[in-house]
Structure formats: structure tokens, C-alpha cells
């Protein structure tokens, strides 16, 4: 005897079930979704797919550099911000798009999937472009310097002068340790700098000015500026002042790298590099406890397109420069080219 309550998963027309074999009965046992008037019965896209769709409709462009690293150009109130796709900044921007549109969060596997989809789009559908740190060559021999401010402006230097541009034609990469440059103004800047560096001689000041001018060139060779002097002769303060004019950073002076990997990472994420407490020896640079990078490490840094101006802080290389007359107090500068 058949039960009065027909299971919900079966077809309500129970009379049609009598006399059917199993092959005919299975299709009718398939669950059917409940239809609600006015509701779309199509499955909703996942959060990752929705985030990618929002990113593609936001006006952002996706591309990659010659090394195959994906990047995104994000419109920002008339300016353009460049972010690596595999960076925290891009993930936050992507999550912000989804939260503003749907009020849901993007995290975990969904965030990883969305970033991977955008990275694939940048690699296989985007253009190939160069990315630079702080200083970049432009068309017709122009030079662009990233100001590092929130509006992503840059300074364009031409034979006729300089100007501030809101959206330069080159792309800049920024690290978390970078700090903004002060906006330049016309005037007697060298005379003011000479008053700040009143503790150095005229000869050493000329070397420092030459290093500063060379530091804003997009290509090398660059001078390595050695700031030498006795303890308390303002070597560290002088290095901080010089770097603040070309590449301000949260850590303007660093301890020498422990190995070649640390050197390459430092040279890739900053423009001007300052090493502190260095001792000079014939095979390279040596600190009190560890060796600074040998020539092989410097060559590798150049091979990955990270040549940059350096300055070193040293107690005074008397052992290698016996012919020179070193002051017993104060600071002295040496410039060597590499």
C-alpha cells in the first residue's frame, strides 16, 4: 500500500510512477530547485569572479615587465598608481572594489584566486613595459623623477628646464620604505646646501654636489661616494642629508648586507643605497663583523638592471691611501666610479 505523503524529491504526479522501471524513475527523482517568483534561477558568480569583473570594469590596465612580473595601473583621481599584482596594496584595492559594490569581504582562497586570474590576464593579454624605481629615462632624452607623494606625481627634466607632471609616461615602483621627495622650487639651492654642509671643505662639497647630480641620471656609471672621518665627525648626518635630496627612505643608512641575496634585494627596492660602518679592503668592502658584497655581487646587481648611486660611511681608509693626507678630525669625501 502506497503512503499518502509522497517524498518531496519525487514528482508529485504519483500515478505516473506505477509501472515504471528504475531507468525511467531516476530522472524524476532528481531534486528540483524551488522557484520563487521574480528570482533569477541562474547560479551566482563566485566572489573571485565578481572581484575580477569589477577590476576589469574599473578602468585599470594590466601589464607585465620583461621579467614576467604582473602589474596594474590603477586610476586615482586624475592620476595613475602602479602596483604589483602580487602585493598587499593591490589585494586591498581589489577587496575594496568588491566591498563597495556588494558589501562582502574578499579574503582567503577567493582573494588568491582573484589575484591569480588578474595576474594571468596581465601576463597573457597585457603589454610589456619597463618599471623603474625613483628615476627613469623618458622619450627624447628626458628624465623623470618620482616624487613619491600620494598623487603619484613626477618631475620631468628636459634641456629647457623642469616641471611637475601628474601622470608621467613611465611607470614607477614604490617600496614600503620609500618616502616622498620635497617638491622642488626655483632658487639658489646649492648655496643653501653649502650652509647646511658647512662642516665639510670646499673640495669635498664639490664631490658631494657631483654625486648628487649624477644620482639623478637614469643610467650609470655612478660614483661611489665614501664619507670618511673620525667618530663624531657627522658622517651619518651628512649621508642622511645627501640621500634626502635624491631618494628619501625610512632607513637612509643600512648595515652592509650579509650575502649576495640581501644586496640584490636592497638594490632592487631603492634607488640610492647608503651603507654604514664600512671598512675598505683590497678584495671588496668589509665591516667589523661581515664582508660587504664583492665584485661578483655588484656585477649581478647590474645584470638585473639595478645600478644605482651608492655612498659608504667609513672610519677612514688610511691603509689604502697612504699617500693622502687625512685630517685627524672632521669628514672627508672620496668619489670612485663603477
Summarize the structure.
By secondary structure, the chain is an alpha+beta fold. It is 31% helix and 20% strand.
Question: Features of this protein?
Answer:
338 residues, 4-stranded antiparallel sheet, 4-stranded mixed sheet, 9 helices, elongated
Please tell me about this protein's structure:
Helix 2 packs across helix 3, helix 2 (47-57) packs across helix 4 and helix 8 crosses helix 9. The longest helix is centred in the middle third of the chain and has 18 residues, at 108-125. The protein is an alpha+beta fold and 338 residues long. The protein has a four-stranded antiparallel sheet with strand order 5-6-7-8, with no helix packed on it. It has helices at 22-28, 47-57, 88-102, 108-125, 189-196, 202-215, 235-246, 260-269, 295-303, and strands at residues 61-64, 70-76, 79-84, 131-132, 135-137, 143-146, 154-158, 161-165, 171-172, 223-229, 273-275, 279-281, 284-286, 310-314, 331-337. A hairpin with a 5-residue loop joins strand 5 and strand 6. The chain is built from nine helices and 15 strands.
Amino acid at each position: 500500500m502506497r503512503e499518502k505523503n509522497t517524498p518531496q524529491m519525487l514528482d508529485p504526479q504519483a500515478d505516473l510512477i506505477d509501472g515504471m522501471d528504475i531507468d525511467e524513475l531516476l530522472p524524476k527523482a532528481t531534486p528540483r530547485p524551488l522557484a520563487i517568483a521574480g528570482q533569477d534561477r541562474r547560479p551566482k558568480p563566485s566572489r573571485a569572479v565578481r572581484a575580477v569583473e569589477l577590476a576589469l570594469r574599473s578602468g585599470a590596465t594590466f601589464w607585465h615587465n620583461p621579467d614576467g612580473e604582473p602589474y596594474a595601473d590603477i586610476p586615482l583621481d586624475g592620476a595613475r598608481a602602479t602596483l604589483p599584482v602580487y602585493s598587499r596594496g593591490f589585494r586591498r584595492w581589489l577587496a575594496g572594489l568588491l566591498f563597495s559594490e556588494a558589501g562582502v569581504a574578499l579574503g582567503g582562497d577567493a582573494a588568491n584566486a582573484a589575484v591569480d586570474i588578474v595576474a594571468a590576464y596581465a601576463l597573457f593579454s597585457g603589454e610589456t613595459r619597463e618599471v623603474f624605481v625613483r628615476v627613469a629615462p623618458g622619450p627624447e632624452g628626458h628624465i623623470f623623477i618620482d616624487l613619491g607623494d600620494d598623487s603619484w606625481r613626477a618631475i620631468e627634466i628636459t634641456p629647457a628646464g623642469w616641471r611637475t607632471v601628474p601622470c608621467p609616461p613611465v611607470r614607477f615602483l614604490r617600496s614600503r620604505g620609500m618616502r616622498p621627495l620635497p617638491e622642488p622650487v626655483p632658487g639658489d639651492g646649492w648655496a643653501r646646501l653649502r650652509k647646511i654642509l658647512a662642516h665639510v671643505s670646499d673640495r669635498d662639497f664639490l664631490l658631494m654636489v657631483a654625486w648628487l647630480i649624477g644620482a639623478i641620471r637614469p643610467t650609470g656609471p655612478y660614483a661611489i661616494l665614501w664619507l670618511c672621518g673620525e667618530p663624531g665627525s657627522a658622517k651619518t648626518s651628512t649621508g642622511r642629508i645627501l640621500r634626502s635630496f635624491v631618494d628619501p627612505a625610512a632607513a637612509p643608512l643600512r648595515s652592509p648586507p650579509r650575502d649576495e641575496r640581501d644586496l640584490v634585494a636592497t638594490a632592487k627596492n631603492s634607488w640610492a643605497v647608503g651603507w654604514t660602518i664600512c671598512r675598505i679592503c683590497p678584495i671588496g668592502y668589509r665591516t667589523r663583523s661581515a664582508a660587504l658584497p664583492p665584485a661578483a655581487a655588484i656585477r649581478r646587481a647590474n645584470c638585473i638592471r639595478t645600478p644605482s648611486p651608492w655612498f659608504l660611511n667609513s672610519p677612514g681608509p688610511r691603509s689604502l691611501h697612504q699617500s693622502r693626507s687625512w685630517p685627524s678630525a672632521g669628514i672627508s669625501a672620496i668619489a670612485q666610479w663603477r
